[in-house]
Structures
1.
Amino acid sequence: MSHQICPRCGGTGVTEKIRHTVETAPDGTRQPKQENYLSPCAHCGGKGHVN
Ligand SMILES: [Zn+2]
């Protein structure tokens, strides 16, 4: 049996995702923010390889 590097995450086991939020500043203006975060790769289950 052989394992292949997961094509989705490139073997890292995590994928970078972007979350969009809006923050309200003290003066009442709204500032769109985007936040990058890592989450376990759904394709390989975070292992980094697929069977
Ligand atoms: Zn993966």
2.
Amino acid sequence: MKAAVVTAYGTAPQYREFAEPRPANSDEILVEVLAAGLHPRVRMQADGSHYTSSPETLPLVPGIDGVGRGSDGRLWYFLSLAGRYGSMAERAVIDTRRSFVLPEGSDPVSVAATLNCVIASWLALKRRITFSPGQNVLVLGATGGTGRMAVQVCRLLGAGQVIAAGRDPERLAAVPGATATAVIGAPETIGRLGPEVDVVLDFLWGEPATTAMAALVAGRTAPLRPLTWVNLGEMAGARAALPAGALRSSRLQLVGSGQGSLTGAEMAAEIPAVAAEIARGTFAVEPDPVALPDVERAWSRPADSSRRIVLTRRPDADGRTGRQTNRQNGWPAGSR
Ligand SMILES: NC(=O)c1ccc[n+]([C@@H]2O[C@H](COP(=O)([O-])OP(=O)(O)OC[C@H]3O[C@@H](n4cnc5c(N)ncnc54)[C@H](OP(=O)(O)O)[C@@H]3O)[C@@H](O)[C@H]2O)c1
């Protein structure tokens, strides 16, 4: 089959032949992949910088999730978090225990763009901490695909105030659902937020986390009020200097949420609820569809956190993979 293939860490995947995967047990099935999102986590998988990376898995097909159609015509959202066979290929073997049958009429490209972005904060709030309605949340990195969705997830789950923090004031102003904004690089705004923050969803780490942590703790009027800091990503750096005084002078707790701190079963258990909200139109990340053979060029495009590149099996006549899919073969209507 054809696939995006990484042969050396740090080089863009190339579209080339790769051995066809085969189901190993009765829980696994082969699907025709229709759409796979190019998330930051996938770039880390391909450049070897993710904490799960190991040179033994090279060569590999990148892609941690996707949407595919089984031989019975059903449309599946699936995770492909381990091994050398990812979702950026013509076909993938999926574990049906870690996958979800999407409602008929679901748009594979939209689901591939959106689900990963939504489930990050959803899992953090539902599975990694005890989150109660009315609590105030600061989203650090709120202008990215995952951060924007996090603001909306917080609102849906009943958060009190939701403060969106990011480095670009214009993009920040356009984040839907935020009750307030704070510009990174202006820590005094984080220190003087007004509402006491209960939870931080941190997609950045690095310097912004160090600065925001010190400012939040320094600005606290009730030091005994718990502050739970959940790290989800590292867009601003894999390491952050932690101010010791912040830990001693407040009830600050550090938690992580991701592969390893969450089990595959925990992730799979939340997929149906998230997929249902996407089908309802509650959440949507704008996709930027690119045909799988163009993977190498897509990789070198400048980052654009307002849209999510989605590799698709085939573009339709006008270059997009449409919302209408052919029910028989799962390919975009009119694309043959
Ligand atoms: N743990 C999980 O379950 C999970 C799940 C999904 C994603 N993630 C992680 O979450 C992070 C964000 O993913 P995403 O999908 O939102 O990425 P994205 O759509 O590419 O957005 C990146 C975000 O990071 C910001 N950013 C990048 N470099 C920065 C810097 N040096 N200083 C301050 N802000 C910076 C961007 O700001 P601009 O808008 O100004 O460019 C944007 O807000 C990634 O690390 C990803 O791996 C974790």
3.
Amino acid sequence: MKNVAIIYHSGYGHTRTQAEAVRDGVRSVPGVHAALIAVEEHADNWEVLDTADAIIFGTPTYMAGVSAPFKAFLDASSDRWARQEWKDKLAAGFTNSAGANGDKLATLQQLALFAMQHGMVWVGLGLLPGNTTSSGSAEELNRLAGFLGAMAQSLTDLGPEVAPTTSDRRTAEHLGRRVARIALGWQGPHRAQRHGGRGDAGGTGMSAALTDPDPVTRAEIERTLACYFDGLHHSDTGLLAQVFHPGAVYATATDGALTRLTMDEYFPVVDARPSPASRGEQRHDSVVSVHLAGPVTAIAVVTCTIGPKHFTDLLSLIRVGHRWQIISKVFHYDLDTTEEPTPCPT
Ligand SMILES: Cc1cc2nc3c(=O)[nH]c(=O)nc-3n(C[C@H](O)[C@H](O)[C@H](O)COP(=O)(O)O)c2cc1C
């Protein structure tokens, strides 16, 4: 099953009529599901948009561009842009306005450029222009002769029950059907996609399986790591319980045998030891590297010191519910023999 999301704004109902026609076109293709989203509800529908194989954007043309509520949604997608989460998804657009021309092309261009910023793959209307000969008529498909997307006209004294015209609705339906058919054969981007903005290892010398996180993702992961360091320094298991996933594992073999703890076993160990902060220890926290295996999967290498032990931690992180958490902590430590050894289990 492929998923096509149609997100639209409509101040007075006409563009909604056009959006419903697009949806009907998507639905007419077996094996493709259509989700129709009013832009006012975009905040509740990020997951639908993120997991869609294609997104079709629809807005009335207001003042020669997309409407203000639609622009607010476009701007709100900038965190997706930063992570290139919609890269290689299909995209298409439609617009409706009062004038036959009405500067609709500018709106479609704005939508297409937006999709390009996201790295999406734009699907045009794929129709020859209608109503271009003396034997033609305004009943023909694509009577407004657009190529970039579906155009519609709604005369201002007509309600959304009758405007846009039948021809414009059929043109909108055509767009939905075309995107759905292409989606059926499209290898979902977000499945095969390498995450991290540049789309590959970017010449960093690391394996192609790992990428550098974009700045937003890096900052999110570093926030989790900062809490991890704070939790260790203050022996604050309340903080550590936020940082670690409840199902996380803790493992080391540095002592020659495997020590493997659940969080229920690990936190009491931390609670039982005097915190490095209370012993006045200097902090030597450092993030050596952070790499992504995918949009919600990361590996961080960090170092820190507790008493005479210098730790190198391999932290696997996952992003669940817009929050990065450590799912496994595998570590090695070296003893600083120049210091008086202090018994301090990690
Ligand atoms: C603020 C505003 C600006 C508009 N600007 C244009 C325009 O630039 N070109 C045009 O042809 N129609 C323009 N219109 C008319 C609308 O595009 C038209 O009424 C459309 O059908 C409204 O769609 P809706 O009912 O989905 O909101 C404008 C309407 C509004 C309210």
4.
Amino acid sequence: MKELFYEIVAEAPLAINERKPGGSQFQEGLGYIPGRVVRGALATQVLRGCKDPAHEHNHQECPQPALCRGLFGEEILFGDAHPLVQKREGPFVLPATAMSCKDNSGFRSKGHGVFDTLIDRACWELLQPAAMQYASRCPVCGGRTKGFSGVYSHCQIEEDGRQIDYYFSEDVSRELLTRVAINRRRGVAEDELLYAINTLSQFVVVERDDPYQQKSFDPARYVGSMRLADDSLETLIETELKRVTRMGGGSSRGLGRVGIHVIHAPVKPALEERLGCFNATLAERQQLMIRWRGDETPLPLPQYFAVTLQSDAILSADGWQPDMRLNEAMLWRACGETGQPPADLRLVRCYTISLTRGGFQAAWGLPKVTELAVQAGAVFLYQMEKAADWTTRLERLEEQGVGSRRAEGFGRVLVCDPFHYEAVKEAK
Ligand SMILES: [Zn+2]
Ligand SMILES: [Zn+2]
């Protein structure tokens, strides 16, 4: 499976909303470009030459049959595109277990730092000290903490001969544009037809070292990826992506003008390494807490792995019932296995938030069914006897994702996200 990364550069404000604008109600826009919107934009482009839009005859007459089959047969899995202000490693979705200071929230570049509580909380709760609850404190001021969500990027800078990791929040500001409908017969503003569109700004403010020009307005950039089952489609998709010029709603109002091009993949540690580091950090923290409790008897340690959602996921137990948990049976199937999951596999912790997700099917001109989803950033922690046996299965899980509507970007996962073990001993 080939993963193709692309960069979307905004040339106009983007209207990425769950519903079409209309009426007087205010609608909250999304802060990223969902995979389904990128898929819709590419499909609109390909459909112009397609001879079988209803997907009935396997696209035999089409100019690009392999591309049509991949796109409309849901073999190409699109991912969400998140903002990336400067050219750094990322963007990655922060896990739901990430916390920051209540008074001075933000990464070390701005606030008291962001740290992850998954490992510490799991260790604490598994040790079960009687009548004591896990509560994190800000490592800088000792104050209270709150959850910290969003996307982040990082880079390494050499200082005094050693490499230091710097983390940054990535965000694009919103703009509320007001439009008025014109009465065609009279040529003046129609009564009661004033409406507002929530858009993502076309520009981001970048701070520079230059004393004469400390701030500059750069076009907003979004980075996403798609996974191709058929590697030979790569060059074809690259040319088709370059032709896409519109994305999201309001194109007749001058919104949604974009340019897309293919970029290099961000660097990520191999799964085996992540699995090893995650378990090493967990064992180390557990030992620390055992010693702190004054209990010297070493416990036989099981092994763990964490699955973190990188996009919203639509999960269903028994194939139809909406669920907030990625239970053992669902995980086992998502790893490409059949039958019952092994007895030593156990889901020990989940941190999830539910929401509803819909969408608009541009080809049919109809809204999509609204479904209950688990928000991106959700974390599931599993326990098993030997983590090393799971490497190939978990690689497959990362490639394929979980739940339904995966071609539209739902259910992308990251196993043992480095943030879980890197942001434990100190806030980043
Ligand atoms: Zn076709
Ligand atoms: Zn603080």
